[in-house]
Design brief:
With 410 residues, the chain is α+β, with helices and mostly antiparallel strands. The chain contains 13 helices and 17 strands.
Length: 410
């Protein structure tokens, strides 16, 4: 029987969502789940593609409409690909390929310049043009070792928000300070509700703090929760888990970190999805107190419109000019050569045979945010260098600091 891949009707969203959950070995969503305003709101504007074997939904792929910050500060329309999966009974039949191709084509047709996702498995999405464009790490700081922030911090004050003011305050503040790095995305209100669920409830010791500068303007925020671990033998101090730290400047971030690390009764602080050039790592008196427990591929990126993407970002000052030839099996318009210099990027009449660098859509997507070096891609066999020195020239032009990070799971 032929499997039909098509847009999901509004009355089918819960069934399609459960098909995805089944594929990822999760339990079906409950009535209580669907009663949550944040879940319902997450489907507003959501692009949903589902696969049907007669009346049975056997697969799903979807995308949220986001904007992503790119080097130089421009924010580009992005398809935040999520809720992707195929029932175990219907794998190896081309269901995922059909759904992903339709999703990406519809996203591009809707004017999305980028597509971004988090990969449950690292071997699936390369064939759809995605590549790792940013890494993060999970970290631990042991206060018992004397870990303290000693670097200069931003002047100002810190307040703990009451529950009633949390959502409105953070939604407005994050829109101003949450695009601090390439790869950062905007958070819609439903996503803030999901992230702040613990702080808005009463079952967990979760708190949200805001930093206010000397001019009285809020310029940073953080969320953390506390867990008290007790032993029958001796006292064990608390564990602090940090879910968010955002600041208009690294000094603001350090002020928030300093407040948390100075809390009494806390032994260990954990934080996930921290950037590799995390401000607090360099702000501690001893960098060995900052322990990287796990490094992960965080953001997978795909350029849906190569010309628009390369033209939108900025490039570093350099006298070099690099021509990059790109091939894309899904979007013929993305096939061509681009001339890139500190002045910007533009299409070139240079053929692939004469281009300095030749790569696929995966290669240019990996390098786009400035966190993955062209040389590393060359080492990995993702591109060919046809002019000696072109790799170094491209790395100078594309490199971005701070390093890219999304900082939001979707």
């Amino acid at each position: 029987m032929t499997i039909e891949v098509r847009r999901t009707r509004p009355d089918e969203l819960r069934v399609a969502s459960d098909a995805f959950r089944t594929a990822l070995l999760f339990a079906p969503s409950s009535d209580d789940d669907w009663a949550k305003p944040s879940l319902v709101a997450s489907f507003e504007g959501f692009m949903s593609i589902s696969a049907w074997d007669d009346a049975l939904c056997v697969g799903h792929a979807g995308a949220f409409p986001f904007v992503t910050s790119v080097p130089g500060g421009v924010r580009l329309a992005t398809a935040g690909v999520s809720r992707v999966g195929v029932r175990q009974t219907h794998t190896r039949r081309g269901v995922l390929t059909s759904a992903m191709h339709q999703l990406l084509r519809e996203a591009a047709g809707a004017g999305m310049v980028l597509a971004s996702l988090r990969a449950s498995e690292a071997v699936i999405y390369q064939r759809f043009g995605f590549a790792v464009a940013g890494d993060t790490c999970d970290i631990e700081i042991d206060r018992r070792a004397g870990a303290r922030v000693t670097a200069p911090v931003a002047q100002g004050t810190i307040r703990i928000l009451d529950r009633a003011e949390t959502l409105g305050t953070i939604a407005e503040l994050h829109e101003r300070v949450g695009f601090d790095r390439p790869g950062a995305i905007g958070r819609p209100l439903w996503m803030h509700e999901r992230y702040l669920d613990d702080a808005l409830g009463f079952e967990k010791a979760a708190h949200v703090i805001v930093h206010t500068n000397i001019d009285g303007v809020d310029d940073g925020w953080a969320q953390y929760s506390l867990e008290w671990l007790e032993s029958s033998v001796d006292h064990v101090g608390g564990k602090c888990t940090i879910d968010d730290v955002w600041g208009a400047t690294p000094a603001v971030e350090l002020a928030l970190w300093k407040f948390i690390l100075d809390l009494d009764l806390i032994d260990v602080v954990h934080a996930g999805e921290r950037p590799l050039d995390d401000a607090v790592r360099f702000g501690l008196s001893n960098q060995r107190h900052y322990l990287s427990r796990r490094r992960s591929d965080e953001q997978w990126l795909r350029l849906l419109d190569v010309d628009a993407a390369l033209s939108a970002r900025s490039y570093n000052s350099s006298s070099a000019v690099v021509t990059v030839a790109v091939s894309d099996a899904l979007f013929p318009a993305n096939c061509g050569t681009w001339e890139i210099s500190s002045a910007g990027a533009r299409r070139s009449n240079v053929t692939a045979n004469d281009a300095d660098l030749v790569t696929t859509i995966n290669g240019v997507s990996a390098a786009y945010l400035g966190g993955t070096a062209w040389r590393d891609l060359w080492v990995g066999g993702v591109l060919h260098q046809q002019r000696a020195g072109a790799l170094g020239d491209a790395d100078v032009l594309f490199a971005s600091r701070p390093l890219p990070r999304c900082g939001t799971f979707f």
